[in-house]
Amino acid sequence: MDNTRLRYLLSRYAGKTITQAEQSELSDFLNAADNQTQLELLIEEAWIQSGEEEELFFPSPQLSREPAPQPLKRVYWKRWVAAALLLIIAGSAWLLATRTRKANKLPAAVTENIKKDVSPGGTKAMLTLANGNVIALDSSLKGTLAQQGDVNLHVSPGMLKYDQNRQTSANSIAYNILKTPKGGQYQLELPDGSKVWLNAASSLKFPTAFVGKERRVELSGEAYFEVARNAGQPFFVSVNNASIAVLGTSFNVMAYTDEAAMKTTLLEGAVKVSQANASSLLKPGEQSLLEPNGKMKVIEKADVSLAVAWKNGLTSFKSADIKTIMRQVERWYDVEVVYSGPIPARSFTGDIPRDANLSELLRLLEISRIHFKMEQRKLIVMP
């Protein structure tokens, strides 16, 4: 197949206008070992052209997400370039309906500088009981874990559940802490049936039973909540000297101390975010930004899917600079990121499965002519 025909098919594929016959033709070409050299040369051409863009987009047709609005500068992209870049991210058969991931040759710079790849994070956490005992949780544990007063702790792969046997008195309440390390995540079902997904490098302090007029937990880091409705006992999240009042709802809180603002994103229901004299009542689809100085801002049409991408198995970024992305990398891949030399000002939009190795994410970023080098668990970012 000549390059003109190949570019045409890639363009049709990226534009989602490819016919069944054309997709079959493209699939046959990509799966033929004899065409590897031609494909690599085409990818290199796309690599060079895309490296000149100020903002890079990485379309992901394998993901069932609503398409995000595309800025006008996207018109500078040739569709075949975008499709060719997809071939850098994953094996062609995976992209063309089979979704079976294949080994793929890394760009030379990534191959040379990362001798040993870094695996993604996984399901792991530490549970600290009221008596100070610490229990390591992972994806293999299941069964009854412990008992705290009148509450039984049950664990299934990736999830900890608190079952309250009977009405609990205030005197028998104990507090537990669930903490995820860098490279860890875990799910928790509280005694009232509320569910919490805890992201990496985060912790949640909570009672073993909710008694009294309110339900209150303390968060550090990031978590997604699905709160059980109970109008007579409102739910509160204490985080970074702020308070989030909840009445049966689904929302995400991102409150890492190394981020510029605490973000509360509402999916369903209603929440009120308060700190000192500032407060905001959010409606579904809105996001509050609370800065360390107490200044609060509300985004009425927030990118909800971006806020909860981590919970849905994606590493996602939208018009993000390299340092914003690297903070995600540090937390999920448990590496230290350092910068060497002036890094080009670039912004990125795209996503990649969260179970991808670190090299798969880095090869996307190297398109912008930012380079990387691994030394033990230290990732060095270079121009």
From TrEMBL:
Name one molecular function that GO assigns to this entry: sigma factor antagonist activity
Q: Which UniProt keywords apply?
A: Membrane, Transmembrane, Transmembrane helix
Question: Per the record's keyword annotation, is Acetylation included, yes or no?
Answer: no
The keyword Nucleotide-binding belongs to this UniProt entry's keyword annotation: no
The residues that cross the membrane are 80-97
Cited InterPro entries: FecR (IPR006860), FecR_C (IPR032508), Ferrdict_sens_TM (IPR012373)
Q: Where is the Protein FecR C-terminal domain?
A: 316-381
All copies of domain FecR protein, residue ranges: 178-272
Protein name per the record: FecR family protein
Q: Which organism is it from?
A: Chitinophaga ginsengisegetis
